[in-house]
TrEMBL record:
Protein's name according to its UniProt entry: Olfactory receptor 2l2-like
Major location category of this protein: membrane
GO CC terms in record: plasma membrane
GO MF, one example: olfactory receptor activity
Keyword tags: Cell membrane, G-protein coupled receptor, Membrane, Olfaction, Receptor, Sensory transduction, Transducer, Transmembrane, Transmembrane helix
InterPro entries reported in the protein's UniProt record: GPCR_Rhodpsn, GPCR_Rhodpsn_7TM, Olfact_rcpt
Gene3D superfamilies: Rhodopsin 7-helix transmembrane proteins (1.20.1070.10)
CDD domains in the record: 7tmA_OR2T-like
Length: 317
């Protein structure tokens, strides 16, 4: 009997699954919240897919700016699809998530977040060249350069994310392995680690500075030069078109960088997990939904392509 007990204890393995506690577990109207989130997700999926379709179908949108822009909805679809379905399942009681699935969520959410920051910064460079140096724009920004920018965004995001994902999940996790979040987010997982992680937390801050503050500083500096160039334009039509393009891009900058700065760069952020979850909910649910609106409602070229597509659909009936 003693031998059997010893063998059983030797064969036991530590649980590797995590439990996601969800967003506001005490909230009474869970069904209404889930319904709203799923409706927004469906609208997000439709809007971003439609934006990608318009850019690839219509030749007047085959420009470097729109080629770069087509990557944003692709990134948004990747982000929302890796988080929202599991979030909805959590609300209905399926809160367990495997070690592999948790690592996958961390990897894709970080990859997309970092890639978006890099891409938005590179898009600002595209706007700067187009407005401040239009005669040299075809020589500076071409298809090859666009492909390099896109590769830089995805590869930079993936490599940085891979390092943080591997490092976060190698720590010893305290039982009962309950993550106080609605998805596997790095800072939330670190809260249940049983080791001293002060050195790694400093690395997270350094990464946040490189990914958030440095690109944002470059964007704001570029826009100072861009707006000075716009003020010197003689053509009201050209000025209005440049302002419309820049305002759309600045809206996207605010949507992406705002929540990230509040979560990772705000003093005492770790002490306000509910606020952080609200900011992540905004970043993973509302931002991907608002992004295609920001680039379509204020953009005559995108609206023109949308009208052509709707006319083609009606004529084919």
């Amino acid at each position: 009997m003693a031998l059997q007990t010893a063998l059983r204890s030797g064969n036991e393995t530590k649980p590797t699954d995590f439990i996601l506690l969800g967003f506001f577990p005490e909230f009474k109207y869970i069904s209404a919240m889930v319904s709203i989130i799923l409706l927004i997700y469906m609208a997000t999926f439709t809007g971003n897919t439609l934006l990608i379709l318009l850019i690839w179908l219509y030749s007047h949108l085959h420009t470097p700016m729109y080629f770069l822009l087509s990557q944003l909805p692709l990134m948004d679809l990747t982000l929302t699809s890796s988080i929202i379905p599991k979030m909805a399942a959590n609300f209905f009681g399926w809160r367990s998530i495997s070690f592999l699935a948790c690592g996958t969520q961390i990897f894709f959410s970080l990859t997309v977040a970092i890639a978006e920051c890099i891409l938005i910064t590179l898009m600002c460079f595209d706007h700067y060249v187009a407005i401040c140096n239009p005669l040299r724009y075809p020589a500076i920004i071409n298809l090859r350069v666009c492909l390099q920018m896109i590769a830089m965004s995805w590869v930079g995001g993936a490599l940085t994310s891979l390092g943080h994902t591997a490092f976060t999940l190698h720590f010893n996790i305290c039982s009962p392995r309950e993550i106080p979040h609605f998805f596997c987010e790095v800072m939330a997982v670190l809260r249940i680690v049983c080791e001293d992680i002060s050195a790694y937390e400093k690395a997270v801050v350094i990464t946040s500075i490189l990914v958030l503050l440095l690109p944002l500083s470059l964007i704001l500096s570029s826009y100072v030069l861009i707006f000075l160039a716009i003020l010197r334009m003689n053509s009201p039509e050209g000025r209005n078109k440049a302002l419309a393009t820049c305002s759309s891009h600045l809206c996207v900058v605010g949507l992406y960088f705002g929540p990230g700065l509040c979560v990772y760069m705000r003093p005492g952020s770790a002490k306000t997990p509910k606020l952080n979850q609200g900011l992540f909910l905004f970043g993973t649910v509302l931002t991907p939904f608002l992004n295609p609106l920001a680039y379509s409602l204020r953009n005559k070229e995108v609206l023109s392509a949308l009208k052509k597509l709707m006319g083609r659909c009606q004529s084919s009936r």
